[in-house]
Amino acid sequence: MPEREPRPYRIGATLRTTDTELLPGFAALHARGEIDHIQVRVIPGETFRRDIEVIAAAAIPSIVHAPHHGHGVNPCAPAAYDARSLPEIRAHIEEAMSRTFEAADTLGAKTIIIHAGWYEPGGRSAAREEFHRFLDRHFDPRLTLENLPAVFCGRPMLGTTAEELVDLAGGRIRGFCLDFAHLYCAANYLGTPYPEALEPFRALNLRHFHLSNTEEGSIADRHLPLDHPGGGLPFSDVVRCIRTRLATPVSLEYREPAGFYEAQITVFDAIFRKFP
Fold first, then answer.
1. Taking the alpha carbons of 99, 100, 101, 103 in that order, is the dihedral positive or negative?
2. pLDDT tens, residue order, the chain (276 aa)
3. Closest Cα partner for 115 from 144, 150, 152, 87?
4. Strand partners, 206
5. How far is residue 56 from each of residues 34, 49, 254, measured CA to CA in Å?
6. What is the pTM of this model?
7. Backbone angles phi, psi at 4, to 5 degrees
8. CA-to-CA distance for 127 and 111, rounded, in angstroms?
């Protein structure tokens, strides 16, 4: 069999800390040169230290993703949509961020991706200020701020546009993560053509890309396969953006085993070559 031509881009898989049973498959992908990194999603819990040591032992270059609102860590409005007491919420956030930094230290990760989160209607200004207070407590130069959809489950989210990310970063966070599907959802919600929504991100220091698909015209990120028949992500714009920054890692985002990722990387490779 002829040797595969080296890929010009960097691509990787996503692994939750609680899914270490999937790690041998990812290690095999890395050994074959199919992926060059894994994005490790930190899930706080009793098995965290054991899990992170297992992941570290695989010696795959790693990027860390902090817990987000789905795991009880909502930096811009900690108590929004949360029935727990505020002291309980604050303690959970402290613990989760401590574990996040520990994961990055253990794995040697230079990038820690975070979400600003969601807030209650009418609370945008307060959410912006609360996010800045979150940075006062938890700033680390590895923090990398990711763009979000405009809404999720009808709840407004903070950090949708490039301009909003820069404002939230406040000159302290210097790197950003562009999630192409999140941007597609936001553009649909705001009625903005995708190329127009994408353009301001080109001026940012983009340390990382996230990639999955979602339904055509959707305002909600579904993490669909790239070749999903109902997917609407405009890959021509996505690929042209990636081509301008080939050194920036692209993480596919699924909770699936290595075989799924291997198939999706093949799909992406065909898409990439389709749009020179």
1. positive
2. 445 678 999 999 999 999 999 999 999 999 999 999 999 999 988 999 999 999 999 999 999 999 999 999 999 999 999 999 999 999 999 999 999 999 999 999 999 999 999 999 999 999 999 999 999 999 999 999 999 999 999 999 999 999 999 999 999 999 999 999 999 999 999 999 999 999 999 999 999 999 999 999 999 999 999 999 999 999 999 999 999 999 999 999 999 999 999 999 999 999 999 999
3. 144
4. 176
5. 19, 11, 20
6. 0.97
7. -65, 140
8. 24
Residue 137 φ/ψ, nearest 5 degrees: -85, -30
Token reading at 203: 């001026």
Structure tokens given for 132: 């800045």
Q: Give me 16's structure tokens.
A: 């939750």
Residue pair 82/120 in contact (Cβ under 8 Å)? The answer is no
How crowded is residue 146: how many other Cβ atoms within 10 Å of its Cβ?
20
**Residue 114 to residues 54, 157, 215, 240, 267: CA-CA distances in angstroms?**
23, 13, 24, 25, 28
Pairing mode, strands 37-41 and 11-16: parallel
- Pairing type for strands 250-252 and 206-211 reads parallel
